Amino acid sequence: MTGRVLPSGEHAVLVEVDSLDEVLALHHRLWVRERPPGLLDAVVGARTLLLVAASARDLAGVRAEAARLVARTPEPMSTASGDDLEAVETMETVEIPVHYDGPDLDDVAALTGLSPDEVVGAHTGRSWRVGFAGFAPGFAYLVDGDPRLAVPRLATPRSRVPAGAVGLAGEFSGVYPRSSPGGWRLIGHTDVVLWDLDRDPPALLRPGLRVRFVDAGGDR
């Protein structure tokens, strides 16, 4: 693995690596298994991990531990073994019931060569993993789905996508936590609340969690 540990302000460093799997492996080690003293937060990106320390003194230890792990080339979570594999297998799974009635379901079927029912079967047929969050509070980019569902974004984004819309874009699936513009292809909707300030933590989906979509029935 090629990685860099870069300064990011007075109390943070940004770790750059080659893949999301490597990011999640580092996140697991630094946040779950081997959290250095004074590490306040670890923010996952597609190819980066932002590590925020409580003080400049704590940052020195955080930086050293991050550099050590990058040099050690931690095994990606998708191919982990031993303790890491056990951690992957026991990750919390969040079930999200979906009504597969989205306006782009037929288009996704045409793009993938599947029938609409086969698209639903592929979307629900395996668990997804929360890769990272972004775009809006509570929006999670889900990975590890069926590769047949990789479809391009819409050429022209919608000006309004309703809260709870379930979409596909590239290798990702996601659920819109609130009404917003968006260019993902919408295959259904859910009534599950993704972002709730009265919940601790507010985000239902967090990096590393597993997500299982369940067909809630209804017309499509």
Protein traits:
alpha+beta; Cyclophilin; four-stranded antiparallel beta sheet; four-stranded mixed beta sheet; 13 strands
Q: Can you tell me the number of structural domains?
A: 2
The arrangement of helices and strands along the chain is: EEHEEHHEHHEEEEEEEE
Number of helices, where a helix is a run of at least 4 consecutive DSSP H or I residues: 5
Strand order of the largest sheet: 1-2-4-3
CATH class of the largest domain: Mainly Beta
Could you give me the name of the CATH homologous superfamily of the largest domain?
A: Cyclophilin-like
Overall shape: it is elongated
Taking the sheet with the most strands, its summary is: 4 strands, antiparallel
Number of strands: 13
Structural class, judged by helices and strands?
A: alpha+beta
Query: The CATH topology of the largest domain is what?
Result: Cyclophilin
Helix content: 25-40%
How confident overall, as mean pLDDT? 89
The CATH architecture term of the largest domain is Beta Barrel
Question: What gap, in angstroms, lies between the N and C termini?
Answer: 45 Å
Radius of gyration of CA atoms, rounded to a whole number: 19 Å
Q: Which regions have little confidence, pLDDT < 50, spanning 5+ residues?
A: 77-90
Portion in strands: 25-35%
Structure explained in plain terms:
This protein has helices at residues 20-33, 56-72, 82-89, 105-112, 116-124, and strands at residues 4-7, 12-16, 39-44, 48-53, 93-98, 128-133, 140-143, 158-161, 165-169, 172-175, 180-182, 185-189, 210-215. It has 2 domains: 4-79, Gyrase A, domain 2; 91-215, Cyclophilin (Beta Barrel), CATH 2.40.100.10. With 220 residues, the chain is of the alpha+beta class. The N and C termini lie far apart (45 Å). β6 (128-133) and β7 form a beta hairpin. The chain is elongated, with a radius of gyration of 19 Å. The protein has 5 helices and 13 strands. It has a 4-stranded antiparallel sheet with strand order 1-2-4-3, with helices on one face. A 4-stranded mixed sheet has the order 5-13-6-7. Strands 10-9-12 form a 3-stranded antiparallel sheet. This is KipI family sensor histidine kinase inhibitor. Keywords: ATP-binding, Hydrolase, Nucleotide-binding.
